[in-house]
Amino acid sequence: MRKVNFDLDALRSFSTGMELGSFAKAADKLGRSTSAISAQLKKLEEQAGTPILRKEGRGLGLTDAGEVLLGYARRILELNDEAWMALGGLELEGWVRLGMQEDFGEHLLSDVLGRFARSHPGVRIEAKIARNGELMTQVRTAKLDLVLAWQAGNDIPHTESVGTYPLQWIGPADRPLGPWRERGGPVPLVAFEAPCLMRSMATEALDRAGIPWRLVFTSHSLGGVWAAVAAGLGVTVRTRFGMTPGLRVLSPEEYGLPKLPALGLAIHRAEAEPAPVCRRLHEIMRESIAELEGRLR
User: Fold this and answer.
1) Angstrom distance (rounded) from CA 64 to CA 48
2) What is the rounded CA–CA span in Å between residue 164 and residue 168?
3) Residues facing 128 on adjacent strands
4) What pTM was estimated for this model as a whole?
5) DSSP secondary structure, 66-91, as one string
6) Which of 72, 113, 264, 284 gets the most CB atoms within 10 Å of its CB?
7) Per residue in 156-173, pLDDT tens?
């Protein structure tokens, strides 16, 4: 049987459209027309020899074959992009200091470090996981070169927004909770030790809605927060990033909880014109965040 070489541009359009949830958005991001994207998807289906998309309401969903192809497309494009970056950065040397919050430590940090190390073996990375306030202080004083952190109104001049993500009420996956309004008792809240941006946003939302609450567990680490929630001690407020098994997003309507706002995420730089190694790491971080976001949908 003759083997088929999948078109890389078509795979990129397909992968980008699924990550953004819209092929019109993919067309804007990739600088193509919607008709060109449609033609690429048609070509991809011809190469696959089977439909990869199906109508789903007003939009498009993946067929079984489409799900399989999407996984391979991401791997193929990752290798392609690594090869391109490796050839373009063979002379890169030096070191870069990176900071992240715990939300991204497990799922994103290893991906970013792995990609960068494979493409630029001559560069040393120093990584730090810490709370928002500490990270922002260190990037302001140039003790860190790049920081991925939630936007809390304390941005520095050299900041690039990478997205806005809704806050969620999160509870245990297999234990009954609430609804507290029917019980008349306070909402049991699990949170970081103060000061904590998401803790403040949770209590402010509850206070505005006139819903009583009590702090039942505090932790200095995200792992401690997740463990307490999974054990059924209470609920917490975070985004979907970093959620571990044993947790689930709670419907505010079902549990009598207030709706929550969204929170901005940004990459903060110590310098307006960073060194080439920092620019390269910045690019990899942005791509990894987009891919992680796509997997969380």
Assistant:
1) 12
2) 13
3) 99
4) 0.66
5) HHHHHHHHHHHHHHHHHHHHHHHTTT
6) 284
7) 778 888 888 899 999 999
